[in-house]
Automatic annotation (TrEMBL):
The keyword Ribonucleoprotein does not apply. Keywords: Toxin-antitoxin system. The lineage of its organism: Bacteria, Bacillati, Bacillota, Bacilli, Lactobacillales. The active site is at residue 71. One of its GO terms (molecular function) is RNA endonuclease activity. GO terms for biological process: mRNA catabolic process; translational termination. It comes from Lacticaseibacillus paracasei subsp. paracasei Lpp225. This is DNA damage inducible protein.
Length: 77
């Protein structure tokens, strides 16, 4: 759970886009999927299978943590 806490703290800080991309493979989910407007990061590193799906509204500093689990459990892949 420490990995999740670290990732969430980085998200909440709102200034770590490059680190999130590099360390957690953070990226937007496909705009053609049901997850349009959401992002995903790999809690256990770029090649890991523990995902966090989230949405952030920068101008209001609102972070919505939506789901966590494996690729298969969350996205069916």
């Amino acid at each position: 759970m420490d990995e999740l806490k670290t990732a969430v703290n980085l998200l909440a800080a709102g200034t770590n886009a490059e680190l999130l991309s590099k360390k957690y493979a953070d990226h937007a989910l496909s705009s053609s999927s049901e997850w349009k407007g959401y992002r995903e990061l790999h809690v256990d590193g770029p090649r890991g299978d523990w995902l966090l799906i989230y949405k952030i509204k920068q101008q209001d500093l609102i972070l919505t943590l939506v789901r966590t689990g494996s690729h298969h459990n969350l996205l069916g892949k």
